[in-house]
């Protein structure tokens, strides 16, 4: 059998196997992994590529991302790539407003709280720039909306408005809304944003896919398919239509959004959606359940009260634990994998309890259940991941001394909880599978930046958002660092396992030829984060090549 392409003189990444420097591809599959070129596989049309010692890796698979949201942000008032400065944000808002005079609502995303003195912007920042039109800007973590006074007025939010369930209106000393709305408190202002067209959504998806391929990503799990909050729109049909049109070049798993307010009656709708997928590149066999918020705004669900705040606030569990048991059991009974959001240690425990119940109810079902984020995990719960077979879906780029973490998050946790801040190594040491994702657009989708942080527990100078004293040279909880092979495996084989894509994530005979070619050997590079993908391949077809 003649190969279509043979990559040789490569630093081939094969965790736990004999070293190889040559990979042969035929059609969409890998047909040989060896040392040296087997001349019997070389035909007249075989393309032999000498990589000069550079790394050949399985394609990166992002286990937790929101690409359509990222694409939408890129097509709107995009603050995500700007320096963390109030003036830079306001200049971008002014420029966008001037360039789009016909937009009834100025929508966008990407701001960071550390650009402002108290960790939050206010409506008074925006009002002098745009006063007549509502401005609605989602934070980079998608847990807050920064709005002007006009948006608050049109949404009917004032000092008398009660905080909604699952959200909080940030107020000043007089009880007046400051212009930041956390979690579900942003629903009423986001309802002001005009409905986007299917064409706009498709453009957003394809723009995001282009970006992900450029950083070596060959597949992902969209962790909120169908969600409608913070300006996000139901993106299920976007994926289905793009897949049917042959435009989806990545392999995508959709985690269908569980609507907390609807409860169990939505199960039939989720099943119907799953049945509409699975024909080519898009499947939807997972369901996303969100159990809490984030630590920085005290909506993550904690076992003990937050420090540095008045009272005994322990955050919010969005679903009652007894109800959560029912939800997970029903989903597993319908053969859905369950993808859970848990940031705080109480939410992590509640999710583990609920998944243990579901696994007990359906012991033969290989659901690939997973819990994402895991900002704080109580040491009693760390061994449970491996024991239960629950995947730890980690966002490694967060495990560093960012200014926002130093000034807003760690004081709320207190020193007694800091050792359990992103305990990746401890979870792995107890036998759990790690899968890695970016949570893009919350943070950058570059897997190599995340791998750098997983290994060193520091930020990389390549990342403009790695800002803070010691962020580049003072590891945060260095005992929780993982090795480079473990980090690469988490972003490849681990994420493939989490997605149920068992023919991807590894370089071996018979696996799908989803590959990324780097510009150097990642194991000898001076800086992991400075390594660049030069070619991304899905099913033997090149989907990105560096110019």
From TrEMBL:
SUPFAM superfamilies: Composite domain of metallo-dependent hydrolases, Metallo-dependent hydrolases. It comes from the Bacteria. Residues 48-544 form the Amidohydrolase domain. InterPro entries: Amidohydro_3 (IPR013108), Metal-dep_hydrolase_composite (IPR011059), Metal_Hydrolase (IPR032466), YtcJ-like (IPR033932). GO terms for molecular function: hydrolase activity, acting on carbon-nitrogen (but not peptide) bonds. PANTHER family: IMIDAZOLONEPROPIONASE, PROTEIN LONG AFTER FAR-RED 3. This is Peptidase. The lineage of its organism: Bacteria, Bacillati, Actinomycetota, Actinomycetes, Mycobacteriales.
């Amino acid at each position: 059998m003649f190969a279509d392409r043979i990559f040789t003189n490569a630093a081939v990444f094969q965790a736990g196997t004999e070293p190889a420097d040559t990979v042969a591809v035929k059609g969409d599959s890998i047909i040989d992994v060896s040392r040296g070129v087997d001349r019997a596989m070389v035909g007249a049309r075989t393309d032999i590529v000498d990589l000069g010692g550079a790394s050949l890796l399985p394609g990166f698979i992002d286990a937790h991302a929101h690409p359509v949201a990222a694409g939408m942000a890129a097509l709107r008032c995009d603050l995500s790539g700007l320096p963390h400065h109030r003036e830079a944000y306001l200049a971008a808002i002014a420029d966008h407003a001037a360039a789009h005079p016909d937009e009834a609502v100025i929508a966008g995303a990407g701001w960071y709280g550390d650009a402002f003195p108290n960790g939050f912007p206010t409506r008074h920042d925006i009002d002098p720039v745009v006063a007549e039109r509502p401005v609605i800007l989602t934070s980079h973590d998608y847990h807050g909306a920064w709005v002007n006074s006009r948006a608050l007025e049109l949404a009917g939010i004032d000092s008398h408005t009660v905080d909604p369930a699952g959200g909080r209106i940030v107020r000043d000393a007089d009880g007046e809304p400051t212009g930041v709305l956390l979690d579900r408190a942003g629903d009423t202002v986001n309802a002001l944003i005009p409905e986007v067209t299917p064409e706009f959504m498709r453009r957003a998806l394809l723009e995001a896919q282009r970006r992900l391929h450029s950083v070596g990503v060959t597949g992902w799990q969209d962790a909120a398919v169908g969600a409608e909050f913070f300006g996000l729109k139901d993106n299920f049909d976007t994926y289905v239509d793009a897949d049917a049109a042959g435009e989806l070049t990545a392999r995508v798993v959709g985690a269908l959004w569980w609507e907390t307010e609807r409860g169990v009656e939505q199960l039939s709708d989720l099943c119907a959606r799953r049945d509409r997928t699975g024909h080519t590149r898009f499947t939807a066999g997972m369901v996303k359940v969100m159990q809490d918020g984030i630590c920085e705004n005290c909506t993550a669900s904690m076992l003990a009260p937050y420090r540095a705040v008045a009272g005994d606030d322990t955050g919010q569990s969005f679903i009652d634990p007894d109800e959560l048991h029912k939800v997970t059991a029903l989903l597993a009974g319908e053969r859905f994998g369950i993808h859970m959001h848990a940031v705080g240690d109480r939410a992590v425990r509640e999710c583990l309890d609920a998944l243990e119940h579901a696994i007990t109810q359906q012991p033969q079902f290989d659901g690939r259940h997973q819990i994402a984020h895991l900002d704080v995990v109580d040491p009693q719960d760390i061994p449970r991941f491996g024991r239960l077979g629950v995947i730890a879906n980690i966002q490694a780029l967060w495990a560093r001394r960012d200014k926002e973490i130093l000034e807003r998050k760690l004081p709320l946790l207190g020193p007694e909880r800091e050792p359990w801040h992103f305990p990746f190594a401890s979870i792995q040491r107890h036998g759990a599978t790690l899968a890695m994702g970016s949570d893009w657009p919350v943070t950058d989708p570059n897997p190599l930046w995340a791998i750098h942080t997983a290994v060193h527990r520091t930020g990389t100078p390549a990342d403009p958002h790695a800002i803070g004293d010691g962020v580049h040279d003072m590891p945060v909880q260095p005992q929780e660092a993982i090795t480079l092979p473990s980090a690469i495996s988490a972003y490849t084989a681990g994420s493939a396992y989490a997605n149920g894509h068992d023919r991807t994530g590894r370089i071996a005979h018979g696996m799908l030829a989803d590959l990324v070619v780097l510009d150097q050997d990642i194991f000898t590079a001076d800086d992991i984060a400075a390594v660049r993908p030069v070619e991304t391949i899905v099913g033997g077809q090149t989907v990105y090549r560096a110019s």
